[in-house]
Write a structure and sequence with these properties.
- This is Flagellin.
- This protein is rod-shaped.
- About 25% of the residues are buried.
- The chain has two domains: about 60 residues; about 170 residues, f41 fragment of flagellin, N-terminal domain.
- It has a two-stranded antiparallel sheet with strand order 1-2.
- A hairpin with a 6-residue loop joins strand 1 and strand 2.
- It has seven helices and two strands.
- The protein starts with 9 loop residues before the first helix and ends with a helix.
- By secondary structure, the protein is mostly helical.
Length: about 280
């Protein structure tokens, strides 16, 4: 049996409780729409927010690792460009050495060819000395520290081998400007000065090409991992805006109806006054 009372308005209490729930739901929905997140902070879902924050840290770390790998890529590309120029100079030196090995040339011609050989070896030295990137030159000063780069967000490193190009390439042919016919003939053999310098250069071109390919592959893997992590975060905490938009309209209508219901319930005690007329 309903209680007719001007002190306790059951209808108004029910209407107010329903209205308050609608306002709370509306506040949550408006927050999701304004932020774009289902879980914007720890008050929404502490466990999900903690997971999202951890993954965000991993994304930032992998992004930073890719930036460092970009620096390593630059160093490797500069080194490869240097070695390519060294290879070109050695090819020219090989052609000049063939002329120096010819016993029919005149003394004047030999002097000219020796001068040409000397210029080419200076070029080789310059290409090696100029292979600098961000203060590092792994052909001139191949220290282990300069050859190590962080490859992922976990801090794991990739180490590539430097090469003492001045010792193993330039020094091998540095005396070319003084080569006699016999010296030139010996230099052209597979184990001779020119042959050895060319072999060493091509070997390092192959090595540094492989290092560069590894860095490219690692960068691409890190990018794919970052994309996957961001997708995972989105599935965990992003709001379904289409769903929330529909819910917002529904809640706004419920809020209006709740206001009307509460107004009607608040007027109920007024009807009791008619009993006393």
């Amino acid at each position: 049996m309903p209680l007719n009372s001007v002190i306790t308005n059951i209808g108004a209490q029910v209407a107010l409780a329903s209205f308050n729930r609608t306002v709370e739901d509306l506040t949550v929905t408006q927050k999701r729409i304004s932020t774009g997140y289902r879980v914007a902070d720890a008050t929404d879902d502490g466990a999900a927010f903690a997971v999202a924050e951890r993954i965000r840290g991993e994304v930032a770390a992998n992004t930073s690792a890719n930036e460092q790998l970009g620096g390593a890529k630059g160093l490797l590309d500069v080194t490869s460009a240097s070695l390519q120029n060294v290879s070109n100079a050695l090819q020219e030196l090989q052609a000049v050495t063939v002329k120096l090995a010819d016993g029919t040339i005149t003394a004047e011609q030999r002097t000219q060819y020796q001068a040409k050989a000397g210029e080419l070896t200076k070029n080789v030295q310059s290409f090696i000395n100029d292979a600098n990137y961000n203060g590092n030159n792994v052909l001139k000063d191949p220290t282990t520290l300069a050859n190590k780069v962080v490859r992922n967000g976990a801090g794991d490193t990739y180490t590539f081998s430097g090469y003492k190009a001045l010792t193993n390439i330039f020094n091998t042919v540095s005396a070319a400007n003084t080569w006699t016919r016999g010296d030139a003939s010996s230099a052209l053999t597979k184990t001779g000065a020119v042959g050895k310098a060319i072999t060493n250069t091509l070997t390092q071109l192959n090595n540094f090409g492989s290092y560069s390919n590894f860095v490219d592959a690692q960068v691409n893997y890190n990018k794919a991992k970052i994309d996957a992590q961001q997708t995972g975060i989105g599935a965990l905490i992003d709001a379904d805006l289409a769903k929330e938009s529909a819910k917002l309209q529904s809640l706004q209508i419920r809020q209006q109806l709740g206001t009307q219901a509460l107004s009607i319930a608040n007027q109920a005690p007024q009807t009791l006054l008619s009993l006393f007329r």
